[in-house]
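request received
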Amino acid sequence: MDYNFSKIMDSIKPSEIRELLKFASMPGMISFGGGMPNPLSFPLDEIKKIADDVIVNNGKLALQYGNTGGLPELKDEIAKLLLRTENIKTEGKNVIVTTGSQQALYAMGKIFVNPGETVMTEAPTYIGAISAFVANGVRMRGVPMDENGMRTDILQEKLDKLKSENIKPRFIYVIPNYQNPAGYTMSTERRKHLLDIAQDYKIPLIEDNPYGELRYYGPKMESLKSMERENEVIYLGTFSKVMAPGLRVGYVNADEKVIQKVNLLKQGLELATSSLSEFIAYEYLKRGIMLKQVPKTVELYRGKRDLMIKALEKYFPEGSTWSKPNGGMFIWATVNENIDTTKMAKRALENKIAYVSGASFYPDDVKRNNMRLNFTFSTDSEIEEGVKRLSKVVEEEAREIAAS
Amino acid sequence: MDYNFSKIMDSIKPSEIRELLKFASMPGMISFGGGMPNPLSFPLDEIKKIADDVIVNNGKLALQYGNTGGLPELKDEIAKLLLRTENIKTEGKNVIVTTGSQQALYAMGKIFVNPGETVMTEAPTYIGAISAFVANGVRMRGVPMDENGMRTDILQEKLDKLKSENIKPRFIYVIPNYQNPAGYTMSTERRKHLLDIAQDYKIPLIEDNPYGELRYYGPKMESLKSMERENEVIYLGTFSKVMAPGLRVGYVNADEKVIQKVNLLKQGLELATSSLSEFIAYEYLKRGIMLKQVPKTVELYRGKRDLMIKALEKYFPEGSTWSKPNGGMFIWATVNENIDTTKMAKRALENKIAYVSGASFYPDDVKRNNMRLNFTFSTDSEIEEGVKRLSKVVEEEAREIAAS
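response:
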């Protein structure tokens, strides 16, 4: 039978990152491509103990359909976590549990935007946000970043220009801490400016904070949500980076009107998040295991981040630059502007080194000479060896281009 | 801040079934409203053992991000299961794991239908399919049913009429076994006719089979998928009724082109299903626990089905009718045509008995004097007492209407 697929699904191409995953498992391959936590950060013994207790004590609930909004006890624990880590004063009723942060991103594209309408994002921005928004027919306009995060002055210019074209963006999406892919953190001044803009232009802000707890250097930054004035911030969180991504538990913290819309969508999307995952996440928080584990994970990742930066300084070709993130999982490297990192990927794979080319992360005007390097998943020796291989690949590519 | 939500989300109203869940937990309430398996059907000891083994032996994978398409070993086990239970000859590459069958339904609405386009469903049909389709802007046309399932003669008439209006439905959605909510099973003759129609009109069939294994009486029916001629059937399965709904593991079995589109959508929706759930489902299948557990569940539910039918015969007011399902989880009761069961729900809740009114299950032309009664979740004494209460409610309602 010949199938006719919907226009929107026919317009979506598989993302490079998914293609790369196929190569990541090839023997000898070193991959800086994924965005995976290091399995050393999973406290297996504690999680086994929790899973046991959950099934023994609450098995009949943990294996049953759950509430679409999430396990009430978990929502209360999330509210407490938000107060402790982000100084956000909130309650369980302002929280909805989502199946990973990805579901929350999809929901944002769906509940706020009619197909064809516009949102503002950082440029570059998270590839998963791009997938989620594109699947909803959302148009994205990118705002450039520097070491202090989104250039809010340019955001304002762009909003004024859009206003003159009678276009009102439906939200502004930002990852203020240790941004994926760029590794930059938004300064306090920019955060304030961004909140002013949200107020002045009456556009909600979506604050995505998957890496906030993975802080290796620099001060703890105030969350936009804690600085808001009238519910203009929708906060997205996840346990994928500070517990275990395999559970698929994320959450949204926002005004009840927003929570209600996400709930309504979630009924159609999948009824409810896995109850077993919710119970495990709840116990993980309640027993204080996150509090105990995060500092260990931070120490592990800080070392890997330092190692990758040292290796880049040692091996990477002259004329290249890279971000020096104070936290998170990624370094953003920029090479000779004649190099197209998407084309270079073939050479990289031949040399058994994988990355995600920068082009994948641009919401509109694509730049071609960047790449995202993950430093959390690889072993220390893979980091050193991988950067060495990548440096050779960049040098060869540059040489070939210069010669042609 | 005033939020502007998308038109589609503003058009969706909360479903009655969700509202009912709030009442289901009131003290003394007997609920025939949900669609929940009985927790006695969860083999807690075995699942605890499996969870232990998974975390000890495969913890680093089971807690990590999984493949968007699903755990390869699980996909292979699903292919084997489909051969054993449904005589479907297939392979892992024709399977994608979904986060419950609900996600598969959402995906069907999204990948096959442009907003505003039409699909055919049974009338009544599964409320979750309605949510999933409505969230994608899908228009539904219902085809009436009788004890032998969808009236395929009427389907054909409707398709001809639509053709004359230049409307081509994007798929035909059916639940051939122990339909939710009606409890009817499609006859072999109708199945053949439906496949002929799919061929003649070149419209894919979606066969949703959550209850196939819950067979209490009657012969095992051949699946549409096993009878198809050229990949015209997209088969949806789930472990929610034969393992545990809290895991949120379902699957689609179809042509690779369809699997690929669902995969592409799933990247934007939530990246991947819970790896922990996938590993547990895999071990549950591989260790043969489903094979051991299903007969016990069947025995439990057969008893409850018989009990509810006996109670209906004993207590239910004259002039009412009800389906006598050979399997599944639901009985469809039809009362005096002057009664609106949606309005009657208030009286029912006052009498501490809950059901879902039939109106919620109609894709287009709503009928108002039906209700869906779940018989799997309640205890035996609740079934007897609940039907008694409900009978009283129906009588009182009829009396009041007659007097007014």
